[in-house]
Structure formats: C-alpha cells, structure tokens
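Raw record, unedited: Peptidoglycan binding-like domain-containing protein
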Amino acid sequence: MLNKWIATGVLVMGMIQSQAWAADSDGKFSVRSMGLATCSQYVEEKAKAEGKYAAFLGWMEGYLTATSQYAKDTYDVVPWGNAVYLGTMLAVHCKANPEQRFYVAVASLARAMQSNRIVSLSPVVEAKNGEHKTYLYKEVLERLQTWLKENKYYDGAIDGAYGNKMRDAIVKFQKTVGLDETGVPDQLLLHRALLQSKAEKAK
C-alpha cells in the first residue's frame, strides 16, 4: 500500500528545480560513507532490512537534520515524514534511478519536501482515536485542516486542534480513497493530501 500511494507523489522529486547548496567555489563538497553508495545498493539493502539499511536511514536523517539547520527559513524540512515513509519514498525513486548516488537521491528528496517545510518551531499535537495515535506539528495539522476543508471533507475551524470533527473528516477521506479508516493523520494520509495532491496539480 505504501509503495502504491508514494509512486505518484515521488514524481515531484524529478520536477524540483536545482537550487544553491553550500559547497566550495567550484560547487564541490565532500560526501561521506553511505552517501557514496548507488541507489541500486540502497534498494538491495532495503529488501534485506538488516543493519546496513539502518545505516542508510541514519545517513538520510543526518542529511535532513543538517538541511533543517542550514537551509534558509527552515525549522524542519520534513515536518511529517518518518523514517519508514521517507525510506520507501527513496526506494521508489532509486528503482527508477539505479546508478544515481544515494546522496543525490536524498538531496532530491529534501528539495521535493522543501515546500512542505515549517519555518519556525510549532507545538506538537497528539491525534488519538482508539488504538490509533500519532503526533504531528500544529502547523501541519492546520495545513491538513485547510486541505480537507477545501476538498469538502471538513467544516470546522482551522485551529491545529484534533477533535471529533477532524477525526470524522479524516475517516471520510480515508474511506473515499481506500485507506485504512484510522481517523488519525498517518503517513499515507499526509502524503496523499499534502504532497501527492501538489504533484497532480503540477502535471
């Protein structure tokens, strides 16, 4: 299911224009450890789901942390993507670009997600419905509320709060598109609403 929903949204990785990143006067910089591996090696290690795959994810999260620290007007470049989601998104991209270096793929991911970044610290909100629970930034929840309202799923306030109206709107959307009806803003829902919808508009 995760691969199915990410396949469309990952197209945005190929549509993001290059931008300036820190490097020397010739645009060169040092790349360490897992960043030098190829995409095909990453896909192979992901299939094994062993120690080396964890090292790839650690490298990715380190890169994204550095991006959040050094990119202009950025608090968190990936404010709602967890390691499993981002790792799957990278795998979809890497299967289409097997010879690409892993650091290039991760840089593409950072650029693709940058339009979703938050620029300053936002409180973390708990969204809980029965056994289903997740945590996300208040600003991300406000964006989701806005999207659900624009698409006629939600008629409540844009306040970054998770309550019954928000739960019901999420369930309605999940049912419409065939996702598990958890009632919480999980990774697949956020991907579909906040990233894939942008990719579809850009086509």
